[in-house]
Amino acid sequence: MSNVDANKVINGTYGFLYDEDGREMDTTSEFEVKDEYEKKEMRFPGDFHSKHKVMGGKITGKIKFSKIDSRLQQKIAADPTVKFNYIGKLADPNSDGEEAVLIRGVSFDSNPIMSYKTNEIVEVDINFTADDYEYKSTIG
Questions:
Q1: CA pair distance 70, 56, nearest whole angstrom
Q2: Predicted confidence (pLDDT) per residue in 29-50, tens digit
């Protein structure tokens, strides 16, 4: 029998995203950022399995939100080379704290100018790369 307290498992409903002005992007339904490692495979005499060395990495992610305005699209259109800083936060009141990560140098891969389907909520789904990240707080 597991000793895990199910109430401590983080609920994504308490995930928040803040833009470069500290303004909550309160219609965000999905946020993901990950550090993808570039590895070099190596083989050595007498070793049956390959070994791997991390040679570098890249930070990628995506944001999905319900559209209520064109603020982000306007900023991207005004300067496609602009980079933003965002803070992602998980703050489930049932957990043992909150996790916050500052994502620096966010550069969007495209500018989703307009998209819609009849009788459906308009959502914006946009991928990005970033330059760096820093944990501001962690859980546990």
A1: 35
A2: 999 999 999 999 999 999 999 9
CB–CB of 22/16 below 8 Å? no
Contact 28, 17 (CB under 8 A): yes
pLDDT of residue 57: 97
Q: Rounded to an integer, what distance in angstroms lies between the CA atom of residue 27 and that of residue 123?
A: 9
Gap between the Cα atoms of 101 and 112, Å rounded? 25
- Residue pointed to by tokens 């993808």: 36
Phi, psi of 86 (to 5 degrees): -125, 155
Report the predicted TM-score, pTM, of the whole model to 2 decimal places: 0.89
How far is it, in rounded angstroms, from Cα 94 to Cα 7? 6
